[in-house]
Amino acid sequence: MRAILAFGSMLALAQPAIAQQSPLLADSFPIGGGAEALCQVQSRAESTLLSSPFDRAWAVVCRDTALPVGHIYALRGDDADTRIAAARDDFTCPEGTPEVASERVSGATEMQCVGARTGLPYTVISLDHGRARWVAEGFSAYDSALDLALRSLLTDAVQPGEVTVATASVADSEAFARIQAQTLDVRAALAEGYRRNNAGDYADAAAFFEQLGMRDTADTSASQTEYLANTALQRSNLGQFTEADILFAQADALPARDPITERKLRNFEAIHQLNQGDYAAAIARLGQPLRISIAPGGDALRQNLTFTKPLADRINTGNPIMKALGLVDDQRLTAEEHAAILDAQADHLRGSALYYQGQRAEAEAALESAQRRVVGVRGGRVVSIIRMRGQILSQLARMAEDRGDLGRAEGLLKSAVDMVAIQYPETRSLAAAQAQLASFYARHGREDEAATLYRGIVDRSLERTDGLTSLAGQMGPWFDILAGRMGSDPKASAEFLSASQILVRPGVADTQAVLARELSAGNDEAARLFRQSVSLNRSLERLRVQRAALARLEGEDAQPQQLRQTERQIADLEEQALNTTVALNNYARYRAVAQRHIGEGDLQGVLSPGEVYAKMAVLDDDVFVYVSGDDFATGYRAGVTGRELATKVAAIRDTISRFEDGNYLTSPFDVEDARALFVALFGPVSDRITGASHVVFEPDGAMLQLPPNLLIADEGSLQEYLVAMEAPDADPFDVTMIDWLGKDRMVSTAVSARAFADARALPSSDAPRSYLGMGSNATLGDAQGGFTGIRGASGASAQDCEWPLAEWNNPISSAELVTATQLVGGGTDLMTGQAFSDTAIKAREDLENFRILHFATHGLVTPPGPRCPTRPALLTSFGGSDSDGLLTFSEIFDLKLNADLVILSACDTAAAADIATTRAAGLGSGGGTALDGLVRSFVGAGGRAVLASHWPAPDDFDATTRLMQGLFEGQGQPLGTALLGAQQVLMADPLTSHPYYWSGFAIVGDAARPLLNVGG
User: Fold this and answer.
1) Distance between CA 857 and CA 875 in Å, rounded?
2) 3-state SS of 137-161?
3) SS3 state at 746
4) What pLDDT is recorded for position 20?
5) Separation between Cα atoms, residue 599 and residue 633, nearest integer Å
6) 811, 876 in Cβ contact below 8 A?
7) Is residue 897 classed exposed, middle or buried when 0-12, 13-18 and 19+ CB atoms within 10 A define those classes?
8) What are phi and psi of 157, to 5 degrees?
9) Mind giving me the DSSP string for 508-573?
C-alpha cells in the first residue's frame, strides 16, 4: 500500500474576530509543554459575564479534568469585580478574606478561597491591566497552570514555564482533546478541529469532530454531515479505514443542504480512497457531478480566517515566500470563493491520483490548475490553505525530481517547509514537510543534511501521544541511514530505537502503562484516588456516547426523560471527576506524566543475560527490525516488504485455521513461508535469536496476527521435513522434526518497549487466593447446536448482528478447569454451568482475591456478519432477565482484578475491538488493532499478563486441555518456561505437532514472571 496521503480538511468556520484583538488573545493555546502540554487555555465567547465586545473570558483545562480547573476574565467597567463575584457558585471567599500582594504576577493581589461543596482550596488573582480588570481564579492545586496562563495572556505571548499537575492517564492526547472540545463553544470547537487537522494532529481532530457530533445534535443535515465527514476523514488519515467507511456512509445518508458541504464530502471521500491506494476510485469520486449548484453572488456562507502571531512576525521580516502570499488579517470568503478553494483541492487530489497511476503529464497539469485556482482566491491570501499550498509544492517537487531537475525540486521542498512552518510550527504537518525534504536529501546522498532534519523530527515526536501516520513512509530513509551506520556509529542503534518509538502503537500499550502507574503506587489513599479518577473518566465517556445517541432519537423513538437523566448523570460525574483529580494533586508521584519511550540503555538494563528484545517497525511498505540484548544492539532493514509480509502471514494462517463452507479447516503447515519469514526478519541476528533463552517480540504490521514461535529457525530441520515428505506414506501433518523459534526458548509478546519495562517492574499480585476457573456454560434447551471442536463462533449467520442462540449450545468441557484446580491445590474456586453467567461474574466482589483467572469458553471475536461491528466478548451462561450471556469488552474493563495472569482459553482472543466499541467502553484512544480487544480489556481490569490465542483453540486430540494441564504442572517456574514445557509435549506428538495445536497461545506481558509459587 502507498503511504497514507492524509491531505486533510480545510476552511473552518472560525469565531468572529474582535476589533483590534491581538492574535494570542483570540486563540486557544497550550501551556507547559508545547504540543503535548498538560493544560490548554481556551477562549470562552459564550460566558454570561461578557457584556460588551471588549470583555473576554478564558477557561483553563488540563488532562484528566472533566471540567475547567480555572477561569480568567478581562472585563471592562467599574462593576467587574461585582459581576465576577455574583457569578461564582462553585467556591466562596469568606468575608474578610485578606488579599495579599502576589509574588508571581507583578502588580496583582491574591486571596485564598474554598470550594462551596468540596472544601478544596481556590486561588483568586486580581489586577488592573490596560483598560480591563483581570481576574484569574481556580483550584489552588492548579496554581502553576493558572499563573502561566495569566502571564501569557497579559504579555500576549505564550510564556515559558513548567506546569505540574496530577494526571491519571499516560498523556492521552485524544482524551484531552475531547475535554477541550467539550469546553469550547461549538463554533470555536469546529475551528479548533480544523486547525488540528491542518496541523496533522488527526487523532485530536477526530476527537473534536466526534464531540461536536455528540453535542450539536439539533441539526441533522449540513452540520452533522460536516462532523461525520470530518471524523471519517481523520479515521482514514489514521489508517482506520473500516471505521471511516461506516462514518462516510452515515454522512452520505444525510440530505445535502448546501454546495460547500457537498464539495467537502466529495473531497474527503476522495482522500479516503487515496489513503487506501485506490486511485481510480478517487478519480471517479472526484468526477461525480455535484447535486447542488452555487448561485453567483451568494455570500451566505462567510469565513473568518485566523492570523497567528508567528505568521505576522514572518511577514513583517520580509520573508519572500510570505511576500508572495501577501497574507493579511481579517479576510472573509464568499460562498463562491469557498467553493473555488474546495474545487482547487479537488484538482490537487486528482493530480495526486494521476501521479500514482503513472500519468505524470496529466498529474502536473492538474496540480498547476489547483495552484492557479487557489491563487485566484484573494491572490492566495488565505491562511487556512497554506498547508494545501505546501502540499502542492511538495508534489510538484517530486515531479521535478523525476525529470532530474534537482535544483527546482529542492527549492520547492524548502518553500513548502517554510510555508507550513509559519502557520503550523512544531506540528505534524511541519514534520511531514521536513521529512519529505529529508527524504529528498537521503535519496541524493546528502546524509548529513537528512540526518539533521530527521533527528529534529524524532526528538519532537518521542513524547507525543499520537504516533506517526502520514509521514511514516518518509521516515524509511532515516532507518536506512542508521542501519548503514551500525558498524561505525556507536549511537546508531539507540537512534534506531528512538525512531521506531514514534510510530503508532496499539491502545493496549497505554492501558498497560496506566496499570503500571496504578500498581506501582500500592494501596494507599493516592492509589484509591488514581483508580477512581480512571474509572470516573471512563464512565463519563460512556455516558457522553449514550447522550449523543439519545439526543438523535426523534418522534416516537424519542426518550426525553432518559436524556435529561443522562445529562444530570454527566453533570454529577464531571464534578466528581474534577474533584478527584484535584485531590490527586496532593500526591507528588502523580504529577509526573509517565514516559512513552525508553532509551536503549534503560531497555538493556531490564534485560537479563540470555534475553533478546526484537522490535518491528512497519512503515508502509518498508519493514525494519531492532534487536537488543543486555550487551548488544543493532537495527536493519528486513528482507521482506510490508505487502510481502502480509501475504506470507495470510498464507501461514490459512494453513492453520480457515473458515470454509461452514467449517474450520487445517492444512499441511506452510513451512516454506515460516522459514522465509524467520530469515527475512531475523537473518542478520539469527545466532542471537537461536542462542537466546527468552525472546521478547514486539510485533508490527501483519505480524500482530501471528505468534513468532512458529517461525522455523533452522534450515536443516526444514530440509529434513521436505525429504521426509517424499516418502509415499508421509504424513504432512507430522512436523516433529522442525526446529521452531519457540521450540527451546520462552517467547513474550510486548506492545511497546516502555510497556515491557513497566510490566517487568510491576510487583507481583498479593491476592490471597491462587486460582479462579470459569467456563462450561449452561445450554439453552431447544436451541440447536453441536460441538464444533473449536472454541470460537460456529459460523452460523446472525440477524441484526446478534449471535444465534445456537452458539450457547456448544459448551466447552470443564475438564481443564478441574485439572487446574487439582494441580494448583488450595485457594481455588470454580464457576461452571449455570453459575458461570455474566451477571454472576460482575456481581462477585472478590475477583481481585485471585492471582490467576482462567476462562475456558467460546470467544466471540469475529463479527457475526460481514457488516457487523467487532465487539469481542466471552460467551457465558445466561444469568437472568438483564443478562445477554456475554462478558463484553466494556464489562471486562469494569472488573476489578489483581491478577498475575489471565488465561483466555478461547477463540482468537488476541484480536481487536473496533473503534466504536472502544469508545463506548469509555476509552479515548486505540481500537481497531490486534491486541486492542479482549487483551486490552483484561489489562485494563488489572491483569499483569494475558495468555491469549491467535486462532480458534483446538479441542481435538485434547490439545488445549493438555496444553493447560502442562502449563499448571509447571507452576513455580517462570510463566514462559511452564508454557514452553506444555508446548514441547504437543510438538513431540505427531498428532499435535502442527502449530495449530501448540503455537496459538501468546503471553502478552513478561513471560519471565513466575507462575504462582510452589505451594502458593
Assistant:
1) 6
2) EEEHHHHHHHHHHHHHHHHCCCCCC
3) strand
4) 31
5) 12
6) no
7) buried
8) -160, 140
9) HHHHHHHHHHHHTTTTSHHHHHHHHHHHHHHHHHHHHHHHHHHHT--GGG--HHHHHHHHHHHHHH
Amino acid at site 447 = E
Amino acid at 960: T
Alpha-carbon distance of 202 to 526, in angstroms, equals 34
CA angle, corner 384, sides to 383 and 386, nearest 5?
70
Residue 318: pLDDT band (50, 70, 90) is very low
Please give the radius of gyration of the chain, using alpha carbons only, rounded to the nearest integer.
29
| 229, 230, 235, 238: CA torsion to nearest 10 | 140
CB 377 within 8 A of CB 397: no
List the beta bridge partners of residue 59.
42, 71
- Residues with Cβ within 8 Å of residue 232, at least 6 apart in sequence: 243, 244, 245, 246, 247, 248, 251, 268, 272
Query: Cβ distance 8 to 387 under 8 Å?
Result: yes
Burial of 631 (0-12, 13-18, 19+ CB in 10 A): exposed
Which alpha helices (H) appear in 406-501, and where do they start and end? 406-423, 428-443, 447-461, 476-484, 492-500
Amino acid at 544: R
**Grid coordinates representing 194?**
480544523
CA–chain centroid gap for 365, Å, is: 38
Report the C-alpha gap between 586 and 123 in whole angstroms: 16
| 3-class DSSP state of 395 | helix
Count of beta carbons in the 10 Å neighbourhood of residue 912: 27
What average pLDDT does the chain have?
83
User: What is the sign, positive or negative, of the torsion defined by CA atoms of 707, 708, 709, 715?
Assistant: positive
Residue 476, all three cell numbers = 524509511
Give per-residue burial for 760-778: e unless 16+ CB within 10 Å, then b: bebeebebebbbbbbbbbb
Cα 778 from Cα 834, distance rounded (Å):
5
Beta-carbon contacts of residue 647 (< 8 Å; ≥ 6 apart): none
Which contiguous run of DSSP H or E holds residue 333?
strand 332-333
Least confident of 133-142, 783-792, 816-825, 941-950: 783-792
Question: What pTM was estimated for this model as a whole?
Answer: 0.84
pLDDT tens-digit readout, 498-539: 999 987 667 777 787 778 777 766 667 877 888 788 888 778
Please list, in sequence order, all residues whose beta carbon lies within 8 angstroms of the beta carbon of residue 679, skipping any fewer than 6 positions away: 639, 686
d(CA 173, CA 35): 9
Give residue for cell 539469527: 686
Q: What is the sign, positive or negative, of the torsion defined by CA atoms of 194, 196, 202, 203?
A: negative
Cα separations in angstroms, 627 against 337, 612, 630, 640, 679: 54, 7, 10, 17, 14
Q: pLDDT of 193-231, one tens digit each?
A: 888 888 778 888 888 888 888 776 555 566 888 888 999
**Amino acid in position 441:** Y
* Cα separation of the two ends of the chain: 51
List, for residues 119-173, the tens digit of each pLDDT value: 889 999 999 998 899 999 999 989 999 999 999 999 888 888 888 887 776 556 6
Q: Closest Cα to residue 823, out of 932, 967, 990?
A: 967
b/e map of 45-61 (b: 16 or more CB within 10 Å)?
A: eebebbeeebbbbbbbb
Pairing relation of β-strands 694-698 and 746-749?
Answer: parallel
Whose cell is 469568606? That residue is 94
Nine-digit cell at 887? 462478558
How far, in Å, are 4, 755, 1005 from residue 697 at the CA level? 26, 12, 10
For the stretch 261-287, pLDDT in tens is 899 999 999 999 998 989 999 999 999
Residue 1000 CA to residue 792 CA, distance in Å, equals: 13
CA distance 581 to 584: 5
